[in-house]
Amino acid sequence: MTMYSRLTGVQYVLPAMSLLMLVLFSPVLYGFWFSLFRIQYGAPTDFAGLENYARLLDDPGLAATLERSALFTCAAVALTLVIALALAVWINRLGQRLGFVVQMIVILPWIISTVVATLLFRWVFVSDIGLAGSLIRMAGTPDVQLLNSPGSAMALLIGVSVWKRLGYAVIILLAGLKGIPEDYEEAAKIDGANRWQIFWLIVLPLLKTPLLLVTIVLTLSNLNTVETPLVLTGGGPGDATRILPIEVFDRAFVNFDLGSATALALVMFAGNILLVLAYVRLAKWKT
Amino acid sequence: MSAATSAAHPRPVSAQHAAVPARSRIALPSALGLVIAGLFTVLAGLNLLPLFWGVLTSLKSQPDLFRTPPVLFDFVPTAENYQRVVDSGFLGNMRISVFYSVLTVASVLILALPAAYAFDRFDFPLRRALFMLVVASIPLSLGAAALLIPNYLYFTRLGLTNSVFTLPLIYTAYQLPMAIWIVKGSLESIPRELDEAAIIDGATHFQILTRVMLPLTRPALGAAGVLTFVSCWNEFVAGSVMIDTPELRPIQPAIYNFIGYFGREWGPLTASATLAILPILVAFALLSRLIVSGLTKGSVKG
Asked: Is residue B62 part of a domain?
């Protein structure tokens, strides 16, 4: 052990850890300090304690935004998980070559940026002059304006979010499935288990860790997504698809209310931390 | 070389058996299999049509765009949409995005290898706690929306916004934890006897790092590098918050601005989208296996 000197070790992690400190950790502390002040023209003026946080509680619109965010995130994560699990089990049965091609097609929307993917999705499937819109008009049915009604706009937002992140979930679950030894299934078959029993009693419990990890990552990324609602609906119609991240950015950069924006961002951050802690517990890391 | 990547090492998702050829294993009732095959067909349409139709749209002139029924191939392709996008300065945005992404990939790899080496081999104070911070930071950067307001305030205070190095700095911090994790996983499978032999031959730790570890972890570095490149190229939120100067604006915020600028003119919009996708598709076509392996090993980013 002596050949690995302590000093050398510190030297090697120092640059990386300093960068994380500068960009990830200290801004949070600074932000918290900042959120305790009254802010004018982007500069802290006098100490206000928790006033910025209290203003959040007084805001009548915020509860509705939280509710929409919760609905959006839960629906998007649940749908992604169910569809991804079905696809992963199916792909796992295909041959190696075919399975790889299928994986590549499934993951396409994930490797494209959210801005561009949402933009193209909107153009082809949603716009009244796009491909789907033109075909619908040709068929003689009246125009479907999905983005004009609150319910369908939210459904569309959920749909696009599922579509965008599905490939990621499939890849991770597929890797988990491939890690299950085949003997387990053989043994269960010999014991007379049918396919459903094998799936529910053997496969699913063994997939617990990857399933939970995917759930956490999907929850984090849906809860924090700015681009999808921004490009697809702009938060509308009315406030129908106005979810938490849009609220934070509007407060900060449209209303220039940096005090309450920072307070809200930190509340969101606290929520993120809970998810991150769950992630750290699950990730099989050792030192 | 391949032993370094395929040997078992801790990762959130066990993929040790990835090399086993997939036979008909976990079988579903065949009716359900058909339903899923149908689902996949729909999904393939949803995934491929936007790309295909987007590229097609970008090549159409204004009158061709509004023809009903929509034309598939029966039109004269035009470059006018691309001309308009280029005239709006999009090539400059692409150039700066290439710069940001390449610089980030380089700095992520340069910082990740020594850090992973130290976390795997050395003993120093707070090692466990620091490594836990690194693991916690992997999913943390997904919450960029929450992180970015404090980050913006802090960087404004330090005078770090709106410079050429602002985004590479932020992107490096976002991607570094995942890279350290992937590289450390690969280092774990390299026997310590190799270090010891090198030390006996008179090598320093720095030489071991550059002459032994660097070549042996190349697949892991490649996977981390590709994922980093894709994430930087696709990043939107930090790019739009931290940068005001048009010359420094990366492509994703530039495309978002085009939405306001071109409105319902889908020709130039799809042209800019096509230009943004092109490098990603090329990287994907050449390095798809590396991307998938990086994703499974890094096991984050949604």
From this structure: no
Q: What is the pLDDT of residues B182-210, one digit of tens each?
A: 999 899 989 999 988 999 999 999 999 99
Q: Do B135 and A283 touch (CB under 8 A)?
A: yes
A177 to chain B: nearest residue by CA? B15
A-chain residues within 8 Å CB-CB of B134? 16, 20
For an interface test with B, the pick among A120, A125, A214 (most B C-beta atoms closer than 10 Å) comes out as A120
- Residue contact B10–A19, C-beta within 8 A: no
Q: What is the pLDDT of residue B106?
A: 98
- Give the three-state DSSP class for A7: helix
Query: Which residues in chain A come in under a pLDDT of 70?
Result: 1-3, 284-287
A93 vs B27: CA distance, rounded Å:
7
Count of domains for chain B = 1
Establish if B139 belongs to a structural domain.
yes
Task: Give the number of other CB atoms < 10 A from CB of residue B209.
Answer: 20
pTM of the model: 0.88
Range of the domain at B176: 86-299
B185 falls within a domain: yes
Q: Is residue B287 assigned to a domain?
A: yes
CB-CB under 8 Å, B70 with A116 = no
Q: Which residue of B has its CA nearest to A5?
A: B122
Query: Which of A146, A149, A126, A121 minimizes the C-alpha distance to A237?
Result: A149
